[in-house]
Amino acid sequence: MFLRNLGLPTLLVAGVALGATACSGGLDQATAPAGGAPEASSPRGQAARFRAGLEVGTAPVGAIVPVHLVLEGDVPAKLNGIQGYVRFDARTLEFVGVDDDRGTLVIANDRVPGEVRFVALKLPKLDAHAAVLAFRVKADGYARGVRFDLEEAATADDQVFGSAATFVREAALAAVEPATPSKAEWEQKLIGLGYKADGQGGARALAFSGDGFVYGDVNLSNSISVADVVPVANTSVGLGNVPDSTANRDVVLAGNVRPVNGADGTTVGFNDPCPPGVECTSVAPFRETGKGSITVADLSQIAIEAAGGDASVVGEAIAKVRTFNDTTVIAAGTYTAATCPLSCDWNRSTGGRLIILDGIVRIAGGAVLNIRPGVRIEGRSPSVGATTRTSALFIDRDAQIFAQGDYTAPIVMSCTAPAAGDPAPNGVGQRYKGCWGGLAIVGSAPINYGGVGLAAAPDIAGRNPGGGGLQRLLEGTGGTPVGGGAFIDTLLFGGNNADDNSGTLRYLRIEYAGRVLTALGSNNELNGITLGGVGRGTTIEYIQIHAGLDDGYELFGGNVNARYLYLTANSDDDFDWSFGWTGSTQFVIVQKDSLDGDKGFEGDNSEGSGTATPGGAALTNDFNVTPRTNGPLYNFTMIGKPNPSVSEGAAPANSVNDLAHIRRGNRSQIANVIAIGWRTMADFDDAATCANTADDPEFRNSAFGGWGTAANLGNSDGSDPVCFRGSTEGALLTNAAVANDTAFTLATYRNQLRKPFDKLAPDFRPIASGNTAADSVLIKKAPAAPPSGNTFITPTTFVGAVAPAGNPANNLAWYMGWTRGWTTATQP
């Protein structure tokens, strides 16, 4: 992995004379962590042996008083950065600035009353008096309300400290002239201390140029300089946004360089479970435990490189692929283990980075399709090139797909950009919703409604041992593909193997799918991902489905689990499940296209016509067949439209509608949801949906922000069932036993999420503090525990799909860094 000698420049420091620091004896609030023992180390740091605290000067009311951050005891020789909080009584003190004339970069954030969060950096090491902050005295006795909380301290040689014994004491300190330098002023000060100006390059040539390819190059300028140091410092204390919509800035990936990781000790990047910046277990088998945060440990190392040193990871290539030098075309057809193109291994070097699907490509006959990080797959749009076929990727019951992207290099499945003369609704070169079919996977897990005239599911390649179980034809197939080609009437799904394994999907983006593939009609299209009878042996996590013409993520039976789904700008429903799906799903974000979007959830037990036994009598709309759809859904953040009572522009007939449509016998439990901006929150239909017993479907521990004076809770369409919690949607959602919050407006809730309606760089994290008591519902909301006996859904301390932002925020949410933003549904 990236191990190099660390060379640091000797920086010229302009210092000021310090006054005497003898204790006055009037105040000595020296404290140790609770219990008098060293505090447990944070995820990014160990407990420190040194002490870090505050010396508070003396001044009359109305005057400026200095507060020094002081380091003492066994301070590491290379300690060059520290961040933390100065907390104080806002009735007695007012923050006014920092001493910027000490050769130390000090960035402070005082947005929260009674609190200054700051970071201090100096190379090669911090002074004993590491930073000076200035306050105006508003009342006597101000020192008694002051305390210091250490967040993190970092050294040049990669020691990170997450806790230390702290103290506060009064001292005689020299007067200070407070300043509040701008970003540009800080950059000039650092240049004067020997840091590189932007464009001067780092200590050596960078691995790649521009566009977020290099760790530390936050402003994407092909150099590591003061222009990277200051934004990271700002972000570490919450003054910079993560994610950031600035076109020429990438703090999330380029700025997140610590911890180094490299779980196998040799590589960082493709197929490494622990790339730089994320939090991972320390022993094998290595696994990721969090996306990390932007802190002084990152700042320390980027500053070393910007000052001419050589910090590990900083300046190295990020394993992100955005250019495609090789193209391979895969002809339409069915491919088996013996005939699969490129030996079913679509990677960055063998066969190129760009794979073109020239029609419907079906993987079957024991084939295992491997797609490597950074690969882009594009389905032909209709009439592009010599063929007229539409395109899709099918994985059959006797095949598997392992599409395993990386956090820094997701796999992308999209369509080809239309050329001149092609039917392109948005113009030449502009992709559009439904310009290809999408990804469809079928398996041998149980379903509850078979196809009429179909025998029991066979055992194919040992995937359905002994055979048996219902099977049916996958929606979107059946008939001749539009534009010609072989019939696809044999894409059947279902069986008896609940543990069936269709492979792994991880760090995958699917865009513009949902095209009608066959001549059977407009209601026979695929979705972004279509899953039929897929079993719980399959792994699905870290998936974005963007701008689908139909549903984003649709499940037809089976019991596959999923987590970390990001569903954006899909025209119909974002999460749709039916035919006896009994898996679990947790951590899902939905963000609708205000001009073209329908429902968030749509859940059925069964639908249409079929048979309850193999080869049995045909049934129509039997909503009580088993296994009953009851898959639990936990921790969703569902964003509708900024004003759901208004239709923006010339909106299509398909417009943002109900948050959830639960019907046709579905008994799913839904919990820990944050939902804002929907015309109505719930529509429960059909008598079979509720038995007036405790296993009826319900929302629990959720928060609903509608429009007008309160959430518009129910869709009064006259077909509501009588359920255990009530006979109307409003009664179901407001029943005290389910602990929902329903009496808040859209305006109230949208102010409790950081940027929920931002499409280029959205931030769905609840704001942790700083709101009034009336506006802090989402932070205070207690989540529901996982269902009894469910081992997939994990306990959380929060509702919604992402953990709250720190205040101010520098933690990274799971969707940041690998997903795409958008302006309209078809434009990035």
Structure overview:
Helix 1 packs across helix 2 (226-236) and helix 2 packs antiparallel against helix 4. This protein is mainly beta and 828 residues long. The longest helix is centred in the first third of the chain and has 11 residues, at 226-236.
Q: Could you provide a short overview of the structure?
A:
The chain is mainly beta and 828 residues long. The chain contains seven helices and 43 strands. The strands form six sheets. The protein has a 25-stranded parallel β-sheet that branches. Strands 1, 2, 3, 4, 5, 6, 7, 8, 9 and 10 form a ten-stranded mixed β-sheet that branches.
Features:
828 residues; mainly beta; 25-stranded parallel β-sheet; 10-stranded mixed β-sheet; 7 helices; 43 strands; disordered N terminus
**Which structural class should the secondary elements be placed in?**
mainly beta
Average pLDDT across residues? 85
Q: Report how far the terminal alpha carbons are from each other.
A: 34 Å
Main pleated sheet: 25 strands, parallel
Number of helices: 7
Instruction: Provide the low-confidence segments as ranges.
Output: 1-43, 202-212, 770-774
